[in-house]
Specification:
The protein is mainly α. It folds into two domains: 130 residues, no CATH class; 186 residues, Farnesyl Diphosphate Synthase, CATH 1.10.600. It is built from 15 helices and two strands. The chain has a two-stranded antiparallel sheet with strand order 1-2. The model has no long low-confidence stretch (mean pLDDT 90).
Length: 317
């Protein structure tokens, strides 16, 4: 991987400021290069859908929808080309050539396959179509692409058997998605609960909770987006309580998976995984103790929650 390609991927992932990026900094050099190239490749399509498409007014989104679907499809094909060892055959408008080359360099000799990227593309298409989240099954289906797919790549990178100049093979004891699912959904539910008001303020189409979950608290996604926090704070507090309770069994099963995976990981890799789950575990504990913090309009409260969680994992910003 050219230094400039890696630097480009590093800069893109660093600007995200995500918890995954913060813990991924500690990985050994080869795994870190794999991580940032994969993270950057997924970040670009997610940012396009969230920051360029979803924030538009309804009539503009309707007009943009065919082109947005085309963009997601072109991104998926560009990723497939890079994984197949042909970065120059990709689509520079859909996937930056630096990311494409980085993917080829780190993954074309691996056995990961394109499944995780295809799953993410499916979730992005669902976002573009604004497919309703009616039931919990809809939420689970969406999670397979939106959070399980990226998490499965992360676990693959942590456990991969890397032979210098040779093939990269999975070091996981089960399919990557199965290893990642509970941990990924746990972190996603905590993320949703923590950022509920922020996401709702950007529009009803960015609320990924099922209608049945909202209805149980006397809410619709439209009401939530219009400022239900001010009109019915008790219902929103109960919703946060519900979400954190829903996250608990995923957390418990995720910890079982973490313990199962630990023998397959090096010391630093095991520490990285533990740190990530510690961050989200601390956020979860905080919301269980005081769900109202997630509803605060004060940015200092949100930043305090974040720093407390990172501090629990001994991670510096």
């Amino acid at each position: 991987m050219a230094d400039s390609d890696l630097a480009y991927c590093l800069d893109l992932t660093r600007r995200s400021g995500s918890n995954l990026w913060l813990v991924g900094r500690t990985l050994p050099k080869a795994r870190r290069a794999m991580f940032v190239s994969a993270y950057a490749s997924m970040r670009v399509v997610d940012d396009f859908v969230d920051d360029e498409f979803a924030v538009q007014p309804p009539d503009r989104r309707a007009a943009m929808r065919p082109a947005a679907h085309d963009r997601v499809d072109r991104w998926r094909r560009a990723v497939e080309s890079a994984l197949d060892g042909k970065p120059d055959a990709g689509d520079p408008d859909a996937l930056d050539p630096a990311i494409s080359r980085a993917l080829t360099d780190r993954f074309h000799s691996s056995d990961i396959g394109g499944g995780p990227w295809t799953a993410l593309a499916d979730a992005m298409h669902r976002d573009v179509d604004e497919t309703p989240f009616t039931t919990w099954a809809d939420f689970d289906a969406y999670c397979e692409g939106a959070t399980v797919a990226p998490a499965s790549i992360f676990l693959y990178v942590l456990a991969a058997d890397i032979t210098p100049g040779g093939p990269v093979r999975s070091g996981l004891p089960a399919p990557a998605a199965d290893c990642a699912r509970d941990m990924a959904v746990f972190c996603y539910l905590v993320h949703i609960a923590r950022d509920l008001l922020k996401d709702a303020a950007q529009g009803a189409n960015l609320i990924t909770l099922p209608d049945t979950v909202l209805a149980a608290h006397g809410l619709s996604r439209e009401e939530l987006a219009r400022g239900a926090a001010e009109r019915n704070p008790a219902a929103l507090t109960d919703l946060i309580v519900d979400l954190t309770a829903c996250a608990t069994p995923y957390r418990e099963r995720g910890e079982v998976w973490r313990e199962r995976l630990t023998p397959n990981l090096g010391a630093r890799e095991a520490m990285t995984l533990r740190a990530l789950l510690t961050v989200y575990g601390a956020l979860h504990d905080g919301l269980l103790k005081d769900p109202s913090r997630a509803l605060s309009q004060d940015p200092k409260v949100r930043e305090s929650m974040r720093r407390e969680a990172l501090g629990a994992a001994e991670i510096s910003v």
